[in-house]
Amino acid sequence: MDFQVPEDLRLLVDNVRKFRERELAPLERDFLLAGKLPLETRLALERRGRELGFWALDAPEEYGGVGLGHLAMCLISEELSKHPAMFEFGGSPEPSLYLCNDEQKESYFLPVIRGERRSCYAFTEADSGSDLAQIRTMAVRRGDDWIVNGAKIFISHVERADFVILFVSTDRSKGARGISCFLVDMKTPGFRISRMIPTMGDDWEPYEIAFEDCLVPDANRLGEVNAAWAIADHQLTHGRLKIAAHQLGIAQRCLDMAVEWAKQRVAFGKKIAQRQAIQWMIADSEVELQAARMLVYRAAWMMDSGERVRNEAFVAKLYATEMAQRVTDRCLQIFGGLGYSKEVPIQSFYRQVRLWRIGHGTAEIHRWMIARSLLGDAARD
Ligand SMILES: Cc1cc2nc3c(=O)[nH]c(=O)nc-3n(C[C@H](O)[C@H](O)[C@H](O)COP(=O)(O)OP(=O)(O)OC[C@H]3O[C@@H](n4cnc5c(N)ncnc54)[C@H](O)[C@@H]3O)c2cc1C
């Protein structure tokens, strides 16, 4: 494959870079010290992005979006993630919401594109993370409604969401094939935010949420009963590609900084750039970053061509997240004590990338799925 990023996408990314340099970069020092970008600032940045045309970038044009493809979105994610606050432009519906029926489109999908409503998604439970078949939050049918009881843990973006894309069991005897998906407004009686969970990542605080006799109309069911495994898989595959793209931006930013630092830092009378130990860390990082970039771009390009990329998304996310862990670690090492300090963003990136060997599927589950795609039935227990 003679791969080249098309000229129009390069211009787009250049504009995103300008946004990052003008709007985000001035906030970096405060972000690093506070470990947080206040929600009001994040929303103001979204509005600023919107004024500049960075809104609903991947939503279809027929619904008021810009209609960009997956490769374009990966390039944008890569560029934005060079800032440690992990800012994202608004107006992009979660992949699951593309399955909304006409009524649900009016109430959920379109308001997200217009910036009137926001969602979070909830699979994980205290006893069900990797193994979604163990989901215990139950929805029991009562006439035209469902009664939901249970709790979800580690749910991101609850603080800014208006509704939850909720995955529950509707038939426990069927495990993962007994899962259904509902769109649950957070104002629904019986819905509660139980607690916020502090984490080692800057500004990434997921929540525990609970449902007690929470009445959800059948009209809020997304897709067929007991058929939400495929919705979850679709959502996660898209997410994996985006996460993989984030790792590229993070690793590139850290590597660029490490290269500049190595050229100026003197120890034992020489620039550390002259030391082979440093050169090898830089070389290994460049090789791995280039390899990860090709995996991510290729998977995105395949997705744009309408191909199924479930396995490619596993491969890209697995490699990119582990690559970013190694690159941020090496770059922190090249910076010495300064790298460990909050005066440079490397430590923030280093902590943040750790999440992605766990979130959206752990590295072990990724390896398992990749192996299964090769081994087929021979890999079954
Ligand atoms: C900051 C943060 C944000 C999150 N945001 C969300 C969110 O918005 N929505 C949401 O639904 N979830 C979210 N999650 C949850 C996340 O997706 C889960 O933590 C993840 O899927 C792993 O599940 P677990 O933590 O229960 O680990 P477990 O499944 O308990 O796994 C524990 C360990 O066992 C290993 N393991 C499990 N099964 C196997 C196996 N078969 N073979 C080999 N090893 C195995 C795992 O790889 C891991 O190392 C978030 C998590 C964090 C930390």
Q: Could you provide a short overview of the structure?
A:
By secondary structure, this protein is α+β, with helices and mostly antiparallel strands. The protein contains 11 helices and 10 strands. The radius of gyration is 22 Å and the shape is globular.
Q: What keywords describe this structure?
A:
Butyryl-CoA Dehydrogenase, subunit A, domain 2; binds flavin-adenine dinucleotide; 4-stranded antiparallel β-sheet; single chain; Butyryl-Coa Dehydrogenase, subunit A, domain 1; 381 residues; alpha+beta; globular; 3 domains; 4-stranded mixed β-sheet; 11 helices; Butyryl-CoA Dehydrogenase, subunit A, domain 3
Layout of helices and strands:
Blueprint: H1 7-24, H2 28-34, H3 39-51, H4 70-80, H5 102-114, E1 119-122, E2 138-142, E3 145-155, E4 163-169, E5 179-185, E6 191-196, E7 207-217, E8 221-222, H6 228-264, E9 266-267, E10 270-271, H7 276-304, H8 310-335, H9 337-340, H10 346-355, H11 363-375
Parallel strand pairs: 1-4
Antiparallel strand pairs: 2-3, 3-7, 4-5, 5-8, 6-7, 9-10
Helix pairs in contact: 1-4, 4-6, 4-7, 6-7, 6-8, 7-8, 8-10, 8-11
The chain binds flavin-adenine dinucleotide.
Residues 120-124, 129-130, 154-156, 199, 204, 206, 355, 358-362, 364-365, 368 line the site of flavin-adenine dinucleotide (FAD).
